[in-house]
Amino acid sequence: EVQLVESGGGLVKPGGSLRVSCAASGFTFTNAWMSWVRQAPGKGLEWVGRIKSKTDGGTTDYAAPVKGRFTISRDDSKNMLFLQMNSLKTEDTAVYYCTSQYDWVFDDWGQGTLVTVSS
Amino acid sequence: NFMLTQPHSVSESPGKTVTISCTRSSGSIASKYVQWYQQRPGSSPRTVIYEDNQRPSGVPDRFSGSIDSSSNSASLTISGLKTEDEADYYCQSYDSSNYVFGTGTKVTVL
Question: Shortest CA distance to A47 belongs to which of A55, A61, A33, A37?
């Protein structure tokens, strides 16, 4: 059974930093492309960024609102995905979901972790 | 970049059929695959349609997807509505290395 479990969310002040994590199991993480998708309270889904598998280059792409502030990384030895968020803004407040991605499809989703940016 | 626009909400009685549209603002809807995700209240999203009209295993055949190039839109049709279908539905497509979700549609089963 595929499991994606996010952790690390919390309250952070504007301008601050936070790293959220995703523990993956039940599939071959090494071969998977992984994405982060967020959902602001009461709002829709927004793609944040993606990291390819190392065999496909391990490269990252980001949505325009977070480019230059957020960094996605992975530790294949531990089946872990990370999202480092710097220079946080109030509009970054959202539930952050970790997803496995196959081509253009967001396949399995975690339960999400809430990040609140507020003074 | 492009946008995907959906109606804000639709409602229908149990047993009836609803269709949700998803209109692409620029670029051809047929140029890249469209996916549909269901998000029940308090839950994470799950895929109900991928690659325009394919159903993942476990998704009932009451769910179907289609593409209409003339209106540059995709559609999700749910037939034989059940109360368990009450949820938010999002279309999704992509362009280069950018992935876009639709604005979302709330389906209410009266």
Answer: A37
